[in-house]
Amino acid sequence: MKAIKQAGIALLALGVGLISGCERHSNKEVFYLVTTNSALPYWQTAASGFNHAAAQYKVTAKVVGPDGYDAQAELAELTKAIAAKPAGILISVADAAVLQPQIDAAINAGIPVVTVDSDAAGSRRLFFIGTNNDEAGTLGGKRLIEKLNGKGNILVFTLSGQPNTEERLKGLKDALAAKPEMKIVDVVDIKGDPRTAFDKAQEVLALTGPKKIDGFICLESASGKMVSDAIKRSNATDRVLVAFDVNQDTLDGIKGGSIDSTIAQKPYTMGYVGLKVLDEMFHNPPKQLSKDYSVDSFSPYPMFVDTGTSLVDKNNVDLYLSSAAEGSK
Predict the structure, then answer these.
(1) Among residues of the chain, what percentage have pLDDT more than 90?
(2) What are the structural domains, with CATH classification, of the chain?
(3) Which of 92, 98, 196, 276 would staple 71 via disulfide (CB 3.0–4.6 Å)?
(4) Going by DSSP bridges, is the β-strand pair 310-312/261-264 parallel, antiparallel, or unpaired?
(5) 312 CB neighbour count, 10 Å cutoff
(6) Spatial separation of the C-alpha atoms in residues 281 and 79, rounded to whole Å
């Protein structure tokens, strides 16, 4: 009887050992988030979601990327991440032509890659998580049409060449095409420097008559405050400014009246969901990592996970301000 009891204890101990030895997660599993501009509040929010999911899973998260908009610097960070042989990489693509070869190299090396916020659709990345950017641009265009009663000159601020902003510009143009009296006068590439937006806005706010700029739209998050500041300095209260993203200063601008509205994305959700899907891929890898799943009707992966967009204006800005305050705790 004693021998049976001892054997039972030994089996129980073995079972516990096997269970503990088969834990799904470990801090030795390292996942990377490669951003386009780590200095922006937008990417700090995305990193927060990425890190939160990593803490829940007890894995290691590393967030890397240049402090400014620099596709070559982002490429260098991606190359270093691949060399570290991580469990997975989540990346926002500043320039698809620059980054696609290394994304494909990561897949060829057996590292799952998912794009986030800005896609490289022609690469071997498994799928894209982020905003439907075409629809986001259309939403901004419809807001301008509404506020300007279908007539006026528009100035656009963007980052030229970045896939997500190019899609937003297309959506904006499609929306305005229905209103021939709405004209895009210029598309200004801020090249990662929001001061360019301030200088250009201040310059054009002095124009009058047929050249007067009636509305501004920012297709990236950095320039909204700068254009808002220029409008306030010129006391141009009759101009309409549509911004992008829900940075604190953007929300404050809506509350104060210098920004009409902004298009809200969900960078926290992108980072949070991104780590979790990479973790699933690491533990349950597909039979063929480099397969084009977009043409597979039985694919285990979607082509696109839409994290959602919404319009924020004076009617709902307090909800977003409360959410931002709660998220910062």
Answers:
(1) 86
(2) 26-131+267-291 (3.40.50.2300), 133-264+313-327 (3.40.50.2300)
(3) 98
(4) antiparallel
(5) 21
(6) 21
